[in-house]
Write a structure and sequence with these properties.
Aminopeptidase, 7-stranded mixed β-sheet, two-stranded parallel ribbon, 9 strands
Length: 184
């Protein structure tokens, strides 16, 4: 079986309907169409997608960050339930961290549900550490959010780390019959 090529690319107005479907599927409609349009218009937002290679009406993944002063605030990460645990979350996070590095940001932060152990493990794999807690942050469940930070994005060795992660992710994706390279 040959590998299917994946790409990470910016969300556009043309792919916005697919993003809304994935948002609904993963978050129950967290962001509205107008919310996504505001993000697309903002120079401080990065919205990345992983389109389904053989289905133009489907996204496999979605991620967003806000550049706030010297910080990348990761606001959204979603992987289609049909392809979870295949390395696509790592691919999206790598894309967001690479964008933060290209913007010259110094650190990254995010909130994650305390019960979302798979996401926490992913963030820890990328050097995020626990920095605090927001009590009752998630309105749908009343659950606390863990605040996680990743420092050192502006350090010279971070580019080496990005390349190493890229190689590891490429291997992980290949195990699931996907292909991807950092230059795509």
């Amino acid at each position: 079986m040959s590998a299917v090529a994946l790409s990470v690319q910016p969300l556009t107005e043309q792919t916005l309907p697919q993003a809304l479907v994935l948002d609904q599927l993963c978050f129950g409609g967290l962001w509205s169409k107008d919310g996504y349009l505001r993000e697309l218009e903002s120079p401080n937002s990065t919205l990345l997608i992983v389109p389904a290679p053989h289905d133009p009406n489907k996204l496999l993944g979605l991620g967003c960050l806000w550049a706030i002063v010297e910080e990348a605030h990761i606001t959204l990460m979603a992987v289609h339930p049909e392809v979870q645990r295949q390395g696509l979350g790592q691919l999206i996070l790598l894309g967001l961290l690479r964008d933060a590095w290209l913007r010259g940001l110094e650190r990254a932060t995010l909130e994650v549900k305390e019960s979302n152990q798979r996401a926490i493990a992913l963030y820890e794999k990328f050097g995020f550490t626990l920095a605090g807690r927001r009590k009752g942050y998630y309105q749908d469940t009343g659950e606390d959010a863990l605040i996680m930070w990743r420092k050192g994005l502006d350090q010279p060795e971070f580019t080496v780390q990005l390349e190493a992660w890229g190689a590891t992710i490429a291997q992980r994706l290949q195990q699931n019959h996907w292909s991807w390279s950092l230059d795509t």
